């Protein structure tokens, strides 16, 4: 696969290069049901008890996520990050709440409630969302499947997604930077479901224009979405993590997105450098990187997001779904044109 930018990738070339981060999928692929759930675990422990510093950036807010308000206020996440289709958000939020209660029976009684964190994209072109096929067991299955070696493409939440009018889905990438002589890893995972084919740009090359059919005169608005999760092992606070999340927009724009009116583009960034204990009276933090030294991390975030989107396109296979709808993979589209 073409390497984006000048920075070195991690060993796996995925978000799992950030130590402790794992990803799992549950995929539903039968006839008109083409959907699923993807879960990102920031660490192997109980995220409610060991909360993870995080922040989000809403690039364009046409989305139906759960948990963003409290995330913005408190600067931590306390469940794994879940991705699914638009109509599955409530079900997956319930599943996250049940999982947290099972591990912490005091939740909602002696202890505060839990803030589920679910993000979505609309996979309704390929998937019959009205079937409401997602259930709580699918979250548990994806959570149990979390591993540092995970599939990408038309899997999990990415099963029914479209990207630049081609087959989209899950993509991931990583980059390594040096700051003051110390190495840090930043990784991205995307749920890519956005873009118009004529705008598709790969490493600065207008690839999409060559793939547009000669009779494609109808201009359709961009109505997709992308969810971006950025992980880093660099010690940052929530304010700095929001700055890091904002750089996802640079990588997204390089691929040809203009964040259209109907696009829900949301980026979340978290650090694994430390956790915030649920029971602590004081927060113990490592020395944080100075804001003036963040540029390498900003570059790593932009490059890994751009690479992850390309990874989603090249990892996906052609998928047929509801009512005869079909999304051809980028690989198949390139073969057709060659």
From TrEMBL:
Stored SUPFAM superfamilies: DmpA/ArgJ-like (SSF56266)
Keywords associated with the record: Aminopeptidase, Hydrolase, Protease
GO molecular function per UniProt: aminopeptidase activity
Entries under Gene3D superfamilies matching the protein: L-amino peptidase D-ALA esterase/amidase
One Pfam family per UniProt: Peptidase_S58
Domain of life from the UniProt record: Bacteria
Protein name, as recorded: Aminopeptidase
Organism: Caballeronia pedi
């Amino acid at each position: 696969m073409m390497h984006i930018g000048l920075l070195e990738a991690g060993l796996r070339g995925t978000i799992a290069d950030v130590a402790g981060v794992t990803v799992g999928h549950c995929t539903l692929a039968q006839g008109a049901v083409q959907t699923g759930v993807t879960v990102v675990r920031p660490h192997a422990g109980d995220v409610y008890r060991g909360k993870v510093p995080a922040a989000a950036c809403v690039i364009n807010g046409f989305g139906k996520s759960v948990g963003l308000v409290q995330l913005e206020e408190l600067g931590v996440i306390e469940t794994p990050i879940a991705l699914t289709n638009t109509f599955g958000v409530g079900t997956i939020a319930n599943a996250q709440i049940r999982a947290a209660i099972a591990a912490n029976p005091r939740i909602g009684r002696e202890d505060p409630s839990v803030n589920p964190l679910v993000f979505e994209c609309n996979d309704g072109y390929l998937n019959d969302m009205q079937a409401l096929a997602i259930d709580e067991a699918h979250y548990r299955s994806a959570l149990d499947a979390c591993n540092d070696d995970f599939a990408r493409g038309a899997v999990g939440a990415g099963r029914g997604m479209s990207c630049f009018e081609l087959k989209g889905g899950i993509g991931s990438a990583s980059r390594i930077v040096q700051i003051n002589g110390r190495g840090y890893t930043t990784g991205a995972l995307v749920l890519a479901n956005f873009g118009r084919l004529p705008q598709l740009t790969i490493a600065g090359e207008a690839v999409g224009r060559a793939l547009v059919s000669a009779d494609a005169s109808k201009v359709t608005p961009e109505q997709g979405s992308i969810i971006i999760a950025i992980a880093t092992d660099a010690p940052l606070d929530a304010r700095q993590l929001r700055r890091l999340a904002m750089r996802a927009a640079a990588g997204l724009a390089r691929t040809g997105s203009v964040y259209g009116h109907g696009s829900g583009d949301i980026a979340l960034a978290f650090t694994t450098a430390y956790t915030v204990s649920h029971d602590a009276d004081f927060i113990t933090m490592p020395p944080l990187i100075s804001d003036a030294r963040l540029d390498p991390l900003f570059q790593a975030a932009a490059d890994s997001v751009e690479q992850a989107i390309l990874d989603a396109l090249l990892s996906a296979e052609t998928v047929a779904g509801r009512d005869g709808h079909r999304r051809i993979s980028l690989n198949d589209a390139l073969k057709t044109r060659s």
